[in-house]
Each structure stands twice: as C-alpha cells, then as structure tokens.
Amino acid sequence: MSEMNIIETQNLTKTYGDFTAVSHLNLHIKKGSVYGFLGPNGAGKSTTMKMLLGLAKPTSGSFHINRKSYPKDRIAILRDMGSFIEAPAFYGNLTGEENLEILRRILQLPKSAVADALELTGLTEHRKRQAKKYSLGMKQRLGLAGALLGHPPILILDEPTNGLDPIGIHEIRTLVRSLPEKYDCTVLVSSHLLPEVELMADDFGILNHGRLLFEGTMDALKRTAENAGLPTYNLEETFLSLIDMDNRNRGERI
Amino acid sequence: MSGTRVPFLQPFLETRKLRRTGFCPAFLGGGLLGALVPAVNMAVRAESFTSQSGSPFRILMDANWQLMAQLNIFLVVCGACILYHTEYADNGIQKARSLPMRPLCLFLGKLTILAVSCLLPLCIEALSLLLCRAHWFSDSAGAGRQLLAGLAFELVLLLPTAAAMLFLSSMCQNMWISLGAGVILVFFSSMLPQGSAAVALMPFASPYRMLHQFSGREALWMCALCLGEVLLFCAAERIYHNIRRCFS
Amino acid sequence: MKNEYRPLNLFSLFGVEMLKIRRSGIFWILLIPAVMMWLPSAMNANVNFLVNPFDISPEHNYFIQGYMGLAWFMIPATLIVCTVLLSQTEIRSRGLVKCLTLPVSTAKLCLAKFLVTIVLAAVQLVLSIATYYGSALLASKLYAYDFLLPLSYVCRCASLIYLAAVPAAAIYWMLSILIRTPIFSAGLGLASIVPSVLMLNTEIWYSYPPDYPFYILMTEYGRIAPDVFGAEIQLIPMLPIGICVTVFSLAIACARYGTAERNSDSL
Q1: Rounded-to-integer distance, Cα B136 and Cα B46, Å
Q2: Which end of chain C has the least Cβ crowding within 10 Å, N or C?
Q3: Is the Cα dihedral C185, C188, C191, C193 positive or negative?
C-alpha cells in the first residue's frame, strides 16, 4: 500500500447471484484529498461504499483503510469514518438534535460536537423539530450532520446533494471542498453528475457497470478523452461519451 | 376502470395486490397451526377424550374449538391488517381512490378475499379433525355431512369478524393501531360469558360457537344474523367513506 | 479524543437505546392493557362475592382473576408488540444501517435493545400494580368491602409473574429479528399465546416458555385454593429450561441482528 493513499482497493469484486455489481475495482484515494466517485445510477458506487463501510462483504479482492482491514479492525476503521449512504437514516420520533445525540454518545464525543455539526449543516434553528417533520433537504442535511459529527478523518458521502435546492447544493459543495483543509480529512464523495463533482474533487474515479473506466485528475481525464477522440469542450459531454463508449464496447463484448 | 363496469372483478384485482405480501402463506401456516391443536391435544391426553361418550366430532370440537377459533380470529385480524396495509404503506390507496370505481368496491373486494381465504384454514382444520376422529375414535358414521355443515357454519360465523376487522383497518392508516385494537378485541371477546345469546352474535365472539350448541332453526337464525352484521359493516364503511371525504 | 476510544459498554448502549424510544408512544402500549384489565374488574367486583367451590376470599379472587388475563394474554401480547415495534423502528428508519457503520458491536446493540424490552416489561409491572390498587380501591368503595391486599404480597406475586416472562420475551425478540415482516412476527407471536393454557394442562408444560407467567400465577392460586392447582413452583426443570431458552434465543438474535442490512443487494 502506497504511503500517500489512505484507501486502496485491490481487485474488489461484489456479485449478487449472477449479477456483478462491482468488478475488479482498484481505487487509490490520497490522504487529505476529495475523491469524486462518478457513475450513472446502478454503476456500483453505493455497493463499493457499502463494502468500505463493512455493510457488504466483498465476493473477492481486498481493501485497506488507513492500513487496516475488515473484519479484524472493524471498530478501529469505523471510528475513523463518518458516512452517509443512500438515503438519510434517522428516527422520526426524535428531534434533529436528539438524533445526533444518539450518534454522539456512541462515538463518545464531547457534547459540543452536536451543536457544531448542526451549525455546519445549517440546521441549528430546526434542531428542536421532530425529524419526521423535516423537508427532504433538511433530512439530507441531518444525514450529513451525522456523518460530519466529530470531524472524522475519513468521510464517505453517497450523493450528498440529492434533494437539495441550488443554494443548498452550493453550500454543501463549498463545505465538502473546505473539509480537507479545515479538519485534515479525506472525502470520498459519489455523484452521477460530473459538473457537480468537478467543483469539489481533486481526483476522480469513473465507474460504469461495476468497472472503473478512469481514475486520476481532471487534467488526466481531459487528456484521456482527447486521446480517445471524445469531446472535451464540455465535461458533461466528456463523461456521457465515456459512458456511452463503454456501453457500446460492453454490448460488443456480450 | 373495470371496477365500474364489472364490480365482481374487484376481488381478482385485489388478489394481485397480495403478491409477495405473505398473505397466502400466513393463512396456510395459520391453518396448519390450528390443525395441530386437536392432533397435539389427542396425542397428549387421548384417554380423557376417548373415554367420553357421545359423538366423536362433538368431543373433539368441545375439547379444541376454543383454541382453534381463537387462532382463526387472529388470522382474520392479521389478514385484514395486511390487506389494508398494502394500500396504506406506499400510499396506493390514494391511487385506488382516484380511479373511477365505487369506494365500497375496494372494501367488498377485500372482504371477498378474506372470506375465501378463511376457507383454507377451516378446511385444513376440518381435515385434521377428520383424521383425529379416524385415528382415535371408532365410530365414523355420517362424518362427511357433519363436517361439511360445521365447516359452512364456522365460515359464516367468521364473516362478521372479518367485516368488522376490515372496517377497522380501513379507518387506521397506521397498521399498529388496527392490529392493537384487533388484539384487544380478541382478548375481551374471549373473556365474555359463553352462555349469552347477545354475546354469541358479536363479532370476535361468534366464531367460538359450535354448530352442535344450536338447534337447526337456531343455527339458521345465527347464520342470517351474522350475514346481517356483515351488511351493517358494509353500510358503516360506506358512511365512513362519505364522512372521510367531507373532512379530508 | 480518538485515541482514548473504547467501544461503549452494554449499559451505556442501553442508555442510547432508551433515548430512541422517546415520543414513540410505547408507554401507552404498556398502560392501556393494564388499565383495560383492571377497570372492568372493579366494575364487576361483586362477582367475587359469589360462592365458589374453592373457598377463596373475595379479595384474593379479585387479584388472581385480574392477573390471570394479564399473565395469560396481556403480558405476552405487550412483549410481542414491544419487540416487533423496537426492531421495526430500526428497520424502517434505516437506523440499523447507520448503527452498522458506527464503531459498536452489533451483538451488544442487540442485547441493549433486549434490555429495553425487559425494562419496558418492568415498567408495565409497576403500572399493573398501580392500576390494581387503583381498581381495588374503586371496587372497595363501590361494594363497601376491602379488596386491597398487602403491598408486599402483590409485589412478590406480580414480580414473579413478570420474571417468568423473560424466556418468552427472549423468544419474541428473536422472532422479531428473524421475521422482518412486522405482521408475521407479531402474528406468529400472538398465535403462540393461544395454546399456552392447553400446554399448561399437560405433563410437559415446562417445554413451552410462553406459559411460564400463567404457571406462576396458577401455583399462587393453588397456594390459596389448594384444589385448583399445585401449590409449589417446580423450579426444576422450569429454571434450567428457561435459562437455556433465553440464552439460545438471545444468541441467535445477536448472530442474526443486522445481517439482512449487510446482505442487502440494493445498489
């Protein structure tokens, strides 16, 4: 494992019956970076993140997080990670503040951590309201607040801007961008929109049908696209062409 | 749409909604559980029953029907909860209510399904009683006729409970409330005095009654009154639906 | 801060789990059966004056008959609804998925939730005693007869009944984890109540833990009315079987807790 990489996967594969969700994935996520994990719906982004969190067992391959691995170091890995997977998880009968209080107690953080996370995600004024009465955007923010609680060294965020309005998207994007500098943490953030991730990530991994099509910086992506004869004037176009090319190749392979 | 033109098709449409809800396995499992009651009871304490004089069916029913009927009532409670929970869980009822069909059709469709479904556990239980009779008792004259009459009688007696429980489930969006209320009603009905004629007719209490406790004329009256109760619950559902529409 | 981290112990986790049931309405599930049991008893307390073949005093008869409904039906039913509600809250809110991504042992989480069930049963025990005294007081006023029994006697009997419900609680907790469809785990649990009276009348009553609370009450009935039932609690084999069933059910529950969330194939 390279010194620089905090997360590394080696031929990580996950199959459900005869369906391969993730195939021989080799990710290299640098410490202190924001890593944008891109791919259309169903590409295997959430499955990869679930494997990193110990929520799904890899069919084959392995991965290391901060030189630790599952299941031996499960507790040690999870205490260093904040996560937000798929949809926000919360207890509707509790207020936003109480929901975070539960996480705070389990993580054994100081009491100020809850107020801090509420402040970071702009939920302070709604903290006393029951979570079931939150709007979609507020629920999303609550999920994010849970992930950010105690400023963990590694953050795994699965489509964190889903359901947010343009102002909310901008706020979250700015927040994620600022995290490595502010709290010295590494962020793995997934999205199905390249322009969205482009504004916050240092490195990118593009996934389609469980296979990694590209990994590297934005400049490297542009160079790869140029070499392949794909359009580079618009990043969304580049991304769509890359996926389209892979789908065509895949069709031929099948 | 078909609900408007051919209302009797509604039960068939309703059965489609029950796919993968576990409704059928529940009734099958419930029936098997009910069928176990006389078998276990006879296996454990056969002598105390075989030594009694009188019709074997009567002995078997007297010894086991309280428990079997209670299981059947629980099944009806759970079945009614499942039937309306599929509507409320993902707001399917909103779509159903926005379709051009009479609101009562939904209720009647579900009632038909629940009534037909009750036949499954009743048949399994009847088969179990038949086997117990054949295995532990020697007298088997007229078994088939007695069994069929008993089966039909118990089915009719279960109908008011089914209608009442469906009415309750249609009112409660939260399944836990209808289930909780159903369980409490099951409990209190089992505590009611057995001899009273009024109690014998009450939903949740009527299924404990047995055909041999009544004369032929009384049994017919019981059936007629139970069917009348079903009509009453249908009317109540209709009225509730109109009221709900005014206030929602 | 991070270096000092030690996974939470069971009792701290229990505190967290208790926090989760705020405003869940679970208190009413505990209170309503207790009130519904005792209020009609107070209204019909005069039936205890009728001559009964067992030569039992009206106040004892009042107490035993009231707790009979609780021990046979209401305690198991409450436990079933509470266990299903507790596990469904986690499933529906995706709270369990979140918990699985936290540095905490799933087995401890599962046991902490079972402890919550036990505490809820203890709360209902207190409520049942309080409502018993409330109703006995009302009955005493209505029929000008002292229906009140000494507190120590009532507490001892009621506590033993609830203590005997622990193995059944463990079974119901296991069922609520193994069967994820709420109506089925509740339905199967409720169906298990039905044959408990039948089982109690057989030689092998001890093999069916849901009938233990009723058994304890019946032995008490036997103590004050010797012809009704055996007066001695047969701790052997009830106690070892009860312990084995509890440990076995909890072991399965802990092993299976969260496995569905881990094996989910949603992408």
Answers
A1: 8
A2: N
A3: negative
Contact in structure between A82 and C110 (CB atoms under 8 Å): no
In the prediction, which pLDDT does C1 show? 43
Of the candidates A82, A77, A54, the one whose C-alpha atom is nearest the C-alpha of residue A67 is A77
Sort out which chain B residues have CB atoms less than 8 A from C77's CB and list them.
183, 187
Cβ contacts of B55 within 8 Å, gap of 6 or more = B139, B146, B212
CA distance A241 to A239: 5
Distance from C-alpha of A28 to C-alpha of A23, rounded to nearest angstrom: 15
CA angle A38–A40–A41, rounded 5-degree value: 115
- Distance (Å, whole) CA B165 – CA B182: 7
Q: A117 with A146: CB under 8 angstroms? A: yes
* Contact between residue C164 and residue C242 where contact means Cβ atoms under 8 Å apart: yes
Q: What is the domain count for chain A?
A: 1
Is A102 an interface residue toward C (CB < 8 Å)?
yes
- Angle between helix C212-224 and C235-256 (nearest 10): 160
Residue A133, domain extent: 90-152
Residue found under tokens 């891109």: A38
Any B CB within 8 A of C194 CB: yes
Smallest CA-to-CA distance from B230 within B206, B195, B209 is with B206
Higher pLDDT, C215 or C228: C215
Which tokens is C41 given?
């008893």
A-C interface: how many C-beta pairs under 8 angstroms?
Answer: 98
Spell out the domain ranges in chain C. Answer: 8-260
What does the pLDDT look like over C189-204, one tens digit per residue? 988 998 888 888 888 8
Tell me the percentage of chain C whose pLDDT exceeds 70: 96
Neighbours of C204 (CB within 10 A): 9
Burial of B23 (0-12, 13-18, 19+ CB in 10 A): buried
Q: Helix-strand-coil percent breakdown of chain A, rounded to 5?
A: 40, 25, 35
Report how far residue A19's alpha carbon sits from residue B236's, in angstroms, rounded to the nearest whole number: 51
Comparing A162-166, A188-192, B64-68, C158-162, which segment has the lowest mean pLDDT? Answer: A162-166
Binary contact (B44, C186; C-beta < 8 A): no
Chains in contact with C, where contact means 3 or more Cβ–Cβ distances below 8 Å, are A, B
A117 domain-assigned: yes
> SS3 for C212?
helix
Tell me the pTM.
0.87
| N-terminal to C-terminal alpha carbon distance within chain B | 24
Q: Which of B64, B68, B72 is nearest to B46 (CA)?
A: B64
Say yes or no for a CB contact (<8 Å) between A55 and C101.
yes
Report the alpha-carbon distance of residue C97 to residue C260 in Å, rounded. Answer: 10
Which residue type, as a one-letter code, is found at position A116?
D
Give contacts of C181 with chain B, Cβ < 8 Å.
22
Report d(CA A190, CA A198) in Å as an integer: 11
Cβ neighbours of B82 in C, within 8 Å: 183
- Closest chain B residue to C198, measured at CA: B41
Distance CA B188, CA B177 (A): 16
E strand segments, chain A: 5-16, 19-25, 28-30, 34-38, 60-65, 81-84, 154-158, 186-191, 203-208, 211-217
Q: Is the dihedral of CA B85, B89, B94, B96 positive or negative?
A: negative
Would the ipTM clear 0.90, i.e. be above it?
no
